[in-house]
Design brief:
CATH architecture: Orthogonal Bundle
Radius of gyration: 19 Å
Oligomer: single chain
Structural class: mainly alpha
Largest sheet: none
Helix content: over 70%
CATH class: Mainly Alpha
Number of domains: 1
Length: about 130
């Protein structure tokens, strides 16, 4: 029962953090490199892996202890900052900038792989 209460508290905090900074579940999933389905499960009470919890704390600018137990350092935007302030802070964060670049490169890589597969189909001997 205690674990279920902890999970409910975690999901409530995660929902509040996500809504307070104006981030969708899809955006959050891209930031921490998981599926949007996983984020949906967390928002309904499931717990992420420990490494992912750490990534969530970095993303939201809070302590792991805050995410898990509601204690410790809360994110600044919960103390009167707006989602726009949060977005500006994320843009000036070098780790966030690198994550964004990695995401863009991964999408570009997928697109290039698709193009390569199409070219290989055209060039393959049995394509005539």
């Amino acid at each position: 029962m205690r674990r279920q209460q902890q999970n409910e508290s975690f999901c409530n905090r995660l929902n509040r953090l996500k809504e307070s900074c104006g981030v969708s579940a899809l955006q959050l999933s891209r930031e921490v490199n998981v599926s949007h389905v996983a984020v949906g499960k967390w928002l309904c009470g499931s717990m992420p892996r420990p490494g992912t919890i750490k990534e969530l704390s970095v993303f939201f600018g809070c302590s792991v202890d805050y995410l898990l137990h509601g204690k410790g350092d809360a994110p600044e935007f919960l103390t009167g900052k707006t989602p726009r302030d949060f977005a500006k802070a994320r843009q000036s964060n070098p780790v966030a900038a690198l994550r964004q670049q990695i995401g863009e490169l991964e999408r570009e890589n997928r697109d290039l792989r698709k193009q390569l597969a199409e070219i290989q189909k055209v060039l393959s001997p049995g394509a005539d």
